[in-house]
Amino acid sequence: MVRFEHIYFRRERRQILTDVSFHMKEGEQWVFLGRNGSGKTTLLEMMNGYLFPTSGRVTVLGHRYGEVDVREVRKSIGYISQSLMEKLHPGDPVWEVVATGLYGFLRFYQTIPEEARAEAHAVLERLNIGRLADSPLGVLSQGERKKAMLARALLSRPRLMIMDEPCAGLDLYEREKLLADLDVFREDGISVVYVTHHIEEIMPMFTHVLLLDDGRVVAAGPKEEVLTADLIRQAYQVDVEIDWYRGRPWIKVRSSQS
């Protein structure tokens, strides 16, 4: 599905990534964790073919970058990020924004096929926001907008879904509603790469974790093996305890006075 082999990336005088390797297999769902500046978003940009390593090999969906037209590979990759949301027109109705996912557009400038309208309404109903179909995107809450982005991504039928901090800016209620909806990707056989700063967002659907620190891999593998107090302490320089509840990790910071 995705393989990074001995990836180094240098920008001007700064070393961003150093000897990063991991292998994401079919059926696995990965979370990337690490402090600000640890290299998470750089890896996503490489996965999408927007950046290329200084050295090393990147293979996505069976295609080795540098030997393939990355524009063709991107047709099988969904991407949800704040930067994408900012490019969408707030005055467009939600169903129309969702329907653009079928074609990779940001906005329609011609007659929209009736089948695209029908598919957009169907996926909005599946995510329980069908009532918002005719509302302008700009009037939705943050959580509702992000659910609309999920619907748009589903409509594009990707093999790989990349999500860059989708819960950023959400309150507890909207975060939990959005996280619950992520399981639709697993149900549809879509592999997910999910970037977050918050360990508690790692839902039971996620199988593996890549833990980064300063552009290096601290650990990569099954989440129960990576999410340990020792490895988290190594990556974040904070003394913690990890509790598991129904397949989901929760973190406790140990007081410096204890």
Summary keywords:
258 residues, alpha/beta, 6-stranded mixed beta sheet, 4-stranded antiparallel beta sheet, 10 helices, 12 strands, globular
Ordered list of secondary-structure elements with their pairings:
Blueprint: E1 2-11, E2 14-24, E3 30-34, H1 40-47, E4 55-60, E5 63-64, H2 70-74, E6 77-80, H3 82-87, H4 94-99, H5 114-126, H6 142-155, E7 160-164, H7 172-181, H8 183-187, E8 191-195, E9 208-213, E10 216-222, H9 223-226, H10 229-236, E11 240-245, E12 248-253
Parallel strand pairs: 3-8, 3-9, 6-7, 7-8
Antiparallel strand pairs: 1-2, 1-4, 4-5, 9-10, 11-12
Helix pairs in contact: 5-6, 6-7
Low-confidence stretches: none
- The average pLDDT value, as a whole number, equals 91
How many distinct helices?
10
Radius of gyration: 19 Å
Provide a descriptive summary of the structure in words.
The chain has 10 helices and 12 strands. With 258 residues, it is an alpha/beta fold. The strands form 3 sheets. Strands 6-7-8-3-9-10 form a 6-stranded mixed β-sheet, with helices on both faces. Helix 5 packs across helix 6 (142-155). The model has no long low-confidence stretch (mean pLDDT 91).
Brief rundown of the structure:
This protein is 31% helix and 28% strand. The protein is built from ten helices and twelve strands.
